[in-house]
Write a structure and sequence with these properties.
The complex is a heterodimer. In chain A, 0% of the residues lie in helices and 56% in strands. Chain A is built from no helices and 11 strands. By secondary structure, chain B is an all-beta fold.
């Protein structure tokens, strides 16, 4: 069964303190791994797609990497506006847009 | 370009009632998916529609159903509501290209069952 596990569940950082979020997954026939950001009271917002091991994507202070078993979301010198829940999701085989989501990491960046 | 619109945003129902939620996707998007989000389970896939056809269905009881209209707008219905159905129901649309995981989510419909 396809499964996604995210750690830690919650993370509190000081502004400027870099860290990483982890997403481990088991899926048959990975077609893509996705990172989303969700702010309170909002729907998830797409950040990155990773398709194969070794691939990296960057956007401002965020960098996502992928191995055969896990993905990392690196946050460099975070700012308070980076505070949100970060969700990881995988897409397995088949002609579908169905995503399997992890339960997310709640990130709080204090000034 | 308008985003995904979900209505209503908030609603309160009692056990045994039924509810219908509506979703208008981004213009031009033909794929609509529905997810249930709860604090304990996170986002769980309900179903996906593409060009009025259900393309995939999650592991939810038959009380949960949906449909998509010719203009790509979608509705989901939950009958005989239970307390455990209290959740944020999220609709997401995509361009309809096969196997894209880049979904555009609405802000959700928060359902409370008393």
């Amino acid at each position: 069964e396809d499964q996604v596990t995210q750690s830690p569940e919650a993370l509190r950082l000081q502004e400027g303190e870099s860290s990483s979020l982890n997403c481990s997954y088991t899926v048959s026939g990975l077609r893509g791994l996705f990172w989303y950001r969700q702010d309170p009271g909002k729907g998830p917002e797409f950040l990155f797609t990773l398709y194969s091991a070794g691939e990296e994507k960057e956007k401002e202070r965020l960098k996502a990497t992928l191995t055969k078993k896990e993905s990392f979301l690196h946050i460099t010198a975070p700012k308070p506006e980076d505070s949100a829940t970060y969700l990881c999701a995988v897409q397995g085989g088949g002609a579908t847009n169905k995503l399997i989501f992890g339960t997310g990491t709640l990130l709080a960046v204090q000034p | 370009k308008a985003g995904v619109t979900q209505t209503p945003r908030y609603l309160i129902k009692t056990r045994g009632q039924q509810v219908t939620l509506s979703c208008s996707p981004i213009s031009g998007h033909r794929s609509v998916s529905w997810y249930q989000q709860t604090p304990g389970q996170g986002l769980q896939f309900l179903f996906e529609y593409f060009s009025e056809t259900q393309r995939n269905k999650g592991n939810f009881p038959g009380r949960f159903s949906g449909r998509q209209f010719s203009n790509s707008r979608s509705e989901m219905n939950v009958s005989t509501l239970e307390l455990g159905d209290s959740a944020l129901y999220l609709c997401a649309s995509s361009s309809g290209t096969w196997n894209t995981g880049e979904l555009f989510f609405g802000e959700g419909s928060r359902l409370t069952v008393l």
